[in-house]
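Data availability (excerpt). The following record was deposited with the supplementary files.
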Amino acid sequence: MLEDRLLVRRCKQGRGDAMCRIYEKYKGYLLTLARALLGDRAAAEDVVHDVFVSFAGSVQTFTLTGSLRGYLSTCVRNLVRDRIRARRHEAENLDSAVSIASASGNPQQQAIETEEITRLRAAMSQLPYEQREAVVLRLKGAMKFREIARLQNVSVGAVQARYRYGLDKLRSMLNSEVTK
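Predicted structure:
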């Protein structure tokens, strides 16, 4: 946290190396978060890029009151919500199938993993956004319920319920597909 305050101060002084350090420090985490919420790597990269461009443009008037990671996470989350709303208006599919490379190099294992990820993404896209967001922020973002509650502007109990209901729905959807 102290390092972040120092980096923000250096950014305000026009030091480009400080902005690069902030970017390097948080880009992986923010990409993981955005990709989990969007289900699309390219869109996630665009979101993170846009967040950092916006942050760089407003750094002179920016005041860090909490954690920089939390602030940037909120920015990503809000921009993702905007993109999802725009997609709904365009009637585009929320998630797209993504092929993955398996560490084993076994084509059969790779096909199984790709199918499982595709099923999981499809199931995630069927969750209400608030539940999906709670699940992703908790599991992928490693955020505490209290932090998620602050981001979503609801009580901790509401976040815990969204998380639990989201996981229950995912289990139900994925288990029903297995028995078909």
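Summary of structural features: Confidence is low (pLDDT under 50) at residues 90-104.
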